[in-house]
## 1
Amino acid sequence: MRLLNKIEHRLRPYNSIDQIVDTNEAVNFPVEFLNSLEILEFPPHELYLKKGAPVILLRNLQTPKLCSGTRLIVESRTNNVPEAKILNGKYKNELALLPRVKLIAEDPVITIFC
């Protein structure tokens, strides 16, 4: 957060879309509860980005262009999909969209879209 505070642009939140895989279990797991979970190796429910903020991919999105460990800098922040410029490798200086991806937790009842 310290680095983001040094960048002059406004923070823009991106929220995950948490849902239950088994609809019969929806009563036992309200959305507020799902949003509060902090699952290892999953991004937080609220991810804040600023234009000019550096980011590192933690998962392969589009190999070989967008692989885990790719460094990017946020260029624009639309309502749903941030756009970033690749800072290293063969695709340096190319723009890439960073879409939400479906991640399923170990518990087969819970699905998290980031």
## 2
Amino acid sequence: MSVLTNKLTPVIDPVRERFQNMPQKDQRALMALSGFMVIVLFWFLVWKPLDDWADKEYAELTLERETQAFLAANYERTKVLIKSQNTGPKKDAAAAISSSGKRAGLNLTRVQPARQGVSVWLDAAPYQKLLGWLVQLHNREGLEVRQIRVERTDQTGMVKVFLRLAR
């Protein structure tokens, strides 16, 4: 501490001496101005940033509470909608698979609804078209591949496929 005092003494002593040589009225005015400056600096450097941060956090908290209330209010409805989507009739899935297979240019050998989804057989299908069709089924129809077996054929780029699709 004495090292700091020794280094600051040449700066502080002339300022203190000049302050003590001022008239009493000027000393009071300078003290009042110094107090005002401390308050202003505290306001802009401490209080204002803390107040802005508190307002921002309160707005985020309000948004989170509104989101939570919305989710709680719509939870049962969403659950029913998801359940009805997942337990859709198998015939609809089979029809969607058949029609989208024709649109994709695939010759579906057999489409059969089953308990675990819809089973599909293709005897000869271009591999690239098959991949595009599976992506389309997933994106448009909400069908996912539950089981797949792909075998090569004698023709290059052609495969024999068994699929089990479900929602």
## 3
Amino acid sequence: MLTRPAPDAIIHSAKERNPDGRAPSWILADFDDTLAPGDSHAGLLRYILRRRIWPLLLLPVITLGGLVYLVPNQRRRGISLIWWAMTLGLSPLGWRKLVRAYCHTRPGLFREAHRLLEEEGHRCWVISASPRALVRAQLALQRPADLPYRTIGSLMHYRLGGLMPRFYCHGQHKLLPEICALDTELALSDSLHDLPLLGLGKEAWLINPTPTRLQKARARLPHLMAKNWQL
């Protein structure tokens, strides 16, 4: 089970990175469809379902979870129902094996994301709605020598025999106190749900946006820049 980092410890350690005592400027990055193509969270759920098969017997629960997820203020409850139904009876060892196996099916990071982590990984926070274990495993597989300074994601725990998010790191919930306290030089994401996060950056990038998404984003963040990234 994963635990949330202590905010005071994070901020204190960040300040210690500069000899003059000043806190450094930071980069905040979403993961899915920002650093890496595709939604690895949804992909992992599909992968688990294909590997386990029998949770199809709980398809009514999975369907109900999907419907509840569409209600904006009920997303955590909806995703919890989906996760619980698909992982019921899955052991911690089985969970880790499925995550590792799934990571080897992923296409990797965008070229520009490789460059970002190579040059700026020491001041980059990756903040994702995907399970933290999933994001960390993908980053460790792709760039073991250039991991980001900190990775924050949804925290999973066991309840009633299945896994579900104890903390769902999505949208406004990404604005943790330790994140808001940072001096953020750059924030980047592909999603309109992350506009609150993008608003923290002196500079903000929207990755691979459609014209409609870019127009909607700039209506709230006029300084936002579009970036087209490729594998």
